[in-house]
Amino acid sequence: MARMNSYRFASLGVGVLITMFTCPDISAQTYAAGYEVLRIAEHDRPIQLDVWYPSRDGDEREHNYGLSIGRIASGADFSGNNVPVVLLSHGALGAAANYSWIAEHLARRGFLVLGVSHFGESPVFGADTVRPESVARFDDRTRDLNAALEFLLERSRYASRLDPERLAAIGHSSGGASVLMLAGVEFSPALLKSYCTSSASTSDKGCEYPSSDVDAIAQTLTTTSRRLTALVVMDPAAGPGFSDSALQTFSLPVLVIASVQNDFLPYSFHAGRVSERLPGAEVVRLDAGEGHFIYLDVCASPIEAMGVPLCSDRPGIERASVHGRLASIIEQFLADHLGIQNAAQ
Length: 345
Known about the structure:
There is one protein chain. This protein has helices at 100-108, 138-154, 174-182, 189-196, 214-220, 244-248, 271-277, 319-338; strands at 3-12, 14-19, 32-42, 45-55, 61-64, 69-74, 83-89, 112-118, 162-172, 230-234, 254-259, 282-286, 304-305, 308-309. By secondary structure, the chain is α/β, with parallel strands linked by helices. The chain has a single domain (3-338), classed as Rossmann fold (3-Layer(aba) Sandwich), CATH 3.40.50.1820.
């Protein structure tokens, strides 16, 4: 049975955390969050890599990621040896830099975080390159993720000081589905299409994206050539596309973080379904009104996806407080499963 960690936020002027689950920091902040952006190409496709890494010599300064503001030490020296790697996969039509809250946090604790942005989906390549039908191209996503990981471990300036045996992945929404596929959970585009054409999907915003060639995707999904150690999936999409048997036979440690009162992807068909069927999954349920986009950085843009605002939360929800709590839980989960006490030492 999956272990369920449930917590709520109550609003009493400010956000007050009431929890059934305590998760102490595994370490105080030891490093500055180094950061750089790289571009590589694979199969004639550009791939953008956002790399957050630990630095003992860096001086953090305010940084504009586009959607949000963070603090990084741009171009700082990379510190540590045998450093664990966390692959980061963004949601539909998004960008890796939209999740700087968790990337910066993990870099300051000694992890290297490799964020991957996908051509055709992500606006980082220019607004004129975005094609909404690309959302359904999970084959492009898994191929990009695998290529990015191989570049990092084999040809990047970080390669010799990384630990290829300690690899984890974090994904939100389509990114959550992508890292499950990358780790070997069998995905059926036909099952997802069947769900999206049924009456059950009436309130499912994910089914409003344009569809793509089901047969082509099914034949070209890529799993990683490296062994992933653990996964964190935040409000994963494409839940109906994973059969019961595909989920129930998956053995990798997984932390599922789910928004119960979901305003985009119905909980019972996506995060709820995945968490209930993954054997031994650790599950955190956000059940105080946190929506699907609570996992994006704190931001102020009026952008909406299918009519749902990306940066505005329901009354009483403080996104920064949610991030602070989740960052500690994610850090502890990764440390437990990657065998880390002080990540970069």
